[in-house]
Each structure stands twice: as structure tokens, then as C-alpha cells.
Amino acid sequence: MDIAFVTGGTGFVGANVVRTLLQKKLTVRALVRKESNLRNLVGLPVELVEGDLLDRQSLKAGCKGARYVFHAAADYRIWVPDPKSMIASNVHGTVNVVEEAQAAGAERIVHCSSVAAIRPPKEDVLAPSTEGCFYESPDDIVGAYKKSKWLSEKAVLDLARTGAPVVIVSPTAPIGPFDAKPTPTGRIIVDFLNSRMPSYIDTGLNLVHVRDVAEGFWLAAQRGRIGERYILGGQNLTLKQGLDLLAQVSGLPSPRFKTPYSLAYAFALLDTTRAKLTGREPMAPLDAVRMARYRMFYDSSKAVNELGLPQTSARAAFEDAVSWFVSNGYAPAPPALRKAPALGGEAA
Fold first, then answer.
1. Is residue 253 part of a domain?
2. Within a 10 A sphere around the Cβ of 261, how many other Cβ atoms?
3. CATH label of the domain that carries residue 89
4. Tell me: the pLDDT tens digits for 221-253?
5. Among 143, 24, 172, residue whose Cα is nearest residue 78
6. For the whole prediction, is pTM greater than 0.85?
7. How many CB atoms are located within 10 Å of the residue 292 CB?
8. H-run or E-run covering 6
9. Torsions phi, psi of 231, nearest 5?
């Protein structure tokens, strides 16, 4: 039986990748930190390798005999008090994984980048961004996280040019089960379900079911071209359209008040300044508001056409996400779930 080594298997995307690989009848080996919360892997037949992205010996052990290596681990935070640790994990850690996988003879290495590394549409451009949209300079990139993902992707492309059998996948904004932390997009859903979202910003995003993303990882290993990147996305929606859809799914009211960008920026500036002084994470990171100025719309047709990426509806993704969050205690059951408890989803 073929072996697949997964980094980030305890996280949101990684936990879904692990389940997809088990469904494909692979033997799955997962890298876990000593302090990792293993709730997303409970009950699964997965071999655990203790270590981290900067520990070459643990990576060597994980890659040994693996036909496929899936690198889904990353330090994903919009705000960090000091970006040095994020750069170490996301850039140097990625190089370590790819080099150890290549040395171990892996047939395919799938690196999880992000649309954060792809230039979003400019304010006066209506067409969504594609894999061919590159930042002209790192100075154009907002925030430490996006810069770290851009740098890690650049390093991976350099390794691909020297022979590493690596394919890059770039998820958009995944939603669905096992978003335990949760991610920033998952936090929007949780806040909505807890009636903590009185208003919205005029922005946009591409929503994709996390299980489609996980399937995209596997398809990239089977059909992806070495050195290419593939956007794993779904449906482009304004934030207001997404919240209206979430209202339909949940039975809760959608916010009507649109927060002016200038007001959101001023609040985020003050909140982030406070965070720098106290070391406590801001409620509204300035970088998140700066990113919201752009509609983060992306075109996934390359992954659909070349890989066969499935395209589950945003509504179904919201249904599964709502059901999982409610089942796991993040929010009370909304009216729609009380009326129809058979909504999809899976408890951890």
C-alpha cells in the first residue's frame, strides 16, 4: 500500500486531506508537534511522527518510503507581533519539507501555497485573478502572512526548476468541517451564528468547500504538472452575498449595515496599535482591513479543466460548516437547524 506523508494534518485543510487519502486507501503518516491538539485525527488509522518543519530528522522519518508528500502545514495568522517565526515556518520549513521529500524519492510533492501569493484583482479590474497574476514586487504584498506565502512559493518554484517533483496548489477561502481554531473565514461563520456580526465591509472572496480542496490535493498529485500552480477555488461572492447565503442556510438575519472602509480602517489602526503595545491579538487586524479593500475573486478553471477539481456549491459548504460548528459547541443551533437537524456535517 502506498504511503502518503502529510504535514499540517491536525489543521483544517490537512485534516480533510488526511481523510481523503484514507478514502483512497493510502497509508497515511502525519507530522505532529509535541504540543499539537490531535482532536481532528481522533479515531483515524494514522501513523504520527512527532516533530516540526524545522526538525529535519522528523521530516526525514516522515518522508521515508512515502510515494506522496503533502505539505499543508503553515503558520496562518493575519497578525503576528514578530514575523520572524512565521518566516521560519512558512519559508524555511517549506524548503526543508521539499528537500527531504525529494531526497527520499517521493514521486510527487504537493505544496499548499495560497491565493495570498497571487496578485488579487486591481480595484478597476472586474476579471478574477488567475495563476498567471504575479506580484511585481514584494512591497506590493499586504501583511507578513501573505509575504511569507509568496516567499515560500518562490522557493518551491526554484526547487522545481532544479528537479523537485513539486506541484503547487493555492486554496482560496475554504469552509466546511474540522475548522477547529477556526480560520478567519470560519470565524466569520461562528460570529454570524452567535449574532456578533452587526455590519459588513464591502469586499469579496472566493468560497470553496474544504473537501473540494482536499480532493484537489490528491488530484494535483495524480495529474498536476510539475512546477505549475493551481487555484483550488469555488464561487466568487461579495461578503454581503455570502452573509445573505449564510442567512438562508441558518435562518438568522443577515446584517444590513455596511461599515464604511474609512471607519473600519480607523478602528483597525487603533486596535492593531493596542495589540502591539499589549501583545494581545487584535479583534480587527489592520492587514485584514487593508486586504478587504480588494475583492479577492479568483478563477479556478485551470484546476477544473486540468485536474478535475470538483465544484461543490457555496450553499452546501455553508451547510456543512454550520452543522460542524454547532455540533462541536462553537454556537447554538440556529433556527434552520432546529427545524431541519439533518443538515450535513460531521462532528470531530
1. no
2. 15
3. 3.40.50.720
4. 999 999 999 999 999 999 999 999 999 999 999
5. 143
6. yes
7. 23
8. strand 3-7
9. -80, 120
